[in-house]
């Protein structure tokens, strides 16, 4: 497969230079100096665009917008002579338009740096990993979801959370899946929103909690006793009876509430403050642990965080994944860790995908790590094997 590499830069000399470098290492290159004519020409759907952000007639940001309107999801390499923050913010914008940004390079960059960037991306392209963005979305209906909740079609997968000091299993996060009779296994990003909007999130969460508590009891019999984290939505924590319901259920199954952590996203907490505070405080008083999920992505207010009885802070994976190549992501992770430590909260990093990220987080003083580097979410049976293999 030969992929096109488009180079769009108003500086002709510079563009020619980049074009020569790329051709030499086997790319099929098309060079353009004028964004307007670039956009008028035929652009292939699958290709890479080296985009200069500062051009006189139309800047790179406008080009990104125009490509988005034409639904041309090229893979981007952003180039700019501005400072790194501009580049970073342009990258965020491109990603908001659903573009994949392969690299952001500051001008003047060395030829070597450019060639290296191209060389690292080519294998990825050939494996088509980064290109596959459109998945046939099997839309599900409210009636189907309702049925699923009440007819045992929901199941939980469990992802290990590892204590960074000891390397041992600290707990698991329960993640819901839907075993659909026709569509197969459906992931939560396809139905949690629907549940939240259609009033089905209450029965869904009840079902998830029921499965999790039962599983916890089962694990006890099998001789393992991991803590278990359960995701709850905004609507769930305004339901004033949640603490009592949950306590009743754990009592019935002889589960210690301390073993259960409820993960609540930041934006959920910021909704109805009075009810949330009521529910969170009573959950905490009954012994349940509380985690603030996706921390850093929502509309956090430090005062709210201070007022709420959270025991754990979960740093969002969008930062954790990038700490090694994105200095701003690193700053955010460091601040989260410092904040958590000062407020006496347990720190969990999610999205730990490599050994290098693990090592760095350990140095930074993070307590618990969760991510593909250690283990993906898995069924309860697989988890048991995983634990036996990893002791
Ligand atoms: P979340 O709470 O942030 O959960 C973490 C998600 O990241 C999971 O996706 C997990 O499989 C994935 N993940 C874990 N480690 C890595 C990693 O190293 N790299 C990458 N790229 N991803 C990783 P999943 O299972 O698809 O869940 C998506 C979201 O759906 C969850 O995000 C959570 O917000 C929601 N969700 C899942 N189960 C429930 C539930 O029972 N109730 C509610 N209300 N929401 C749920
Ligand atoms: Ca979570
Ligand atoms: Ca998250």
Write the layout of secondary structure elements.
Elements (H helix, E strand, L loop, with lengths): L3 E5 L3 H13 L3 E5 L2 H6 L6 E6 L7 H10 L5 E6 L3 H13 L4 E6 L4 H16 L15 H9 L3 E10 L5 E12 L3 E3 L5 H6 L3 H21 L5 E6 L9 H11 L7 E6 H4 L3 H13 L3 E7 L6 H6 L4 E4 L1 H4 L6 H16 L3 E5 L4 H10 L3 E3 L9 H10 L2
Parallel strand pairs: 1-2, 1-3, 3-4, 4-5, 7-9, 9-10, 10-11, 11-12, 12-13, 13-14
Antiparallel strand pairs: 6-7, 6-14, 7-8
Helix pairs in contact: 1-5, 9-11
The structure holds ligand C2E and calcium ion (2 copies).
CATH topology of the largest domain: TIM Barrel
Structural category is alpha/beta
Number of domains: 2
Q: At the fourth CATH level, what is the homologous superfamily of the largest domain? A: EAL domain
Give, in order, the helices and strands.
EHEHEHEHEHHEEEHHEHEHHEHEHHEHEH
Low-confidence stretches: 127-136
Instruction: Report the mean per-residue pLDDT as an integer.
Output: 89
* Cα distance spanning the termini: 45 Å
Biggest beta sheet summary: 8 strands, mixed, barrel
C-alpha geometry: elongated
Q: What portion of residues is helical?
A: 40-55%
Molecules bound to protein: ligand C2E, calcium ion
Count of alpha and pi helical runs: 16
Strand content: 15-25%
* Strand tally: 14
CATH level-two architecture of the largest domain: Alpha-Beta Barrel
Largest beta sheet: what is the strand line-up? 6-7-9-10-11-12-13-14
In words, what does this structure look like?
The protein has 391 residues and is α/β, with parallel strands linked by helices. It has helices spanning 12-24, 35-40, 60-69, 84-96, 111-126, 142-150, 192-197, 201-221, 242-252, 266-269, 273-285, 302-307, 317-320, 327-342, 355-364, 380-389, and strands at 4-8, 28-32, 47-52, 75-80, 101-106, 154-163, 169-180, 184-186, 227-232, 260-265, 289-295, 312-315, 346-350, 368-370. It folds into two domains: 3-130, Rossmann fold (3-Layer(aba) Sandwich); 142-390, TIM Barrel. Helix content is 43%, strand content 21%. An eight-stranded mixed beta barrel has the order 6-7-9-10-11-12-13-14, surrounded by four helices. A five-stranded parallel sheet has the order 2-1-3-4-5, with helices on both faces. Helix 9 (242-252) packs parallel to helix 11. The chain is elongated. Bound molecules: ligand C2E and calcium ion (CA) (2 copies).
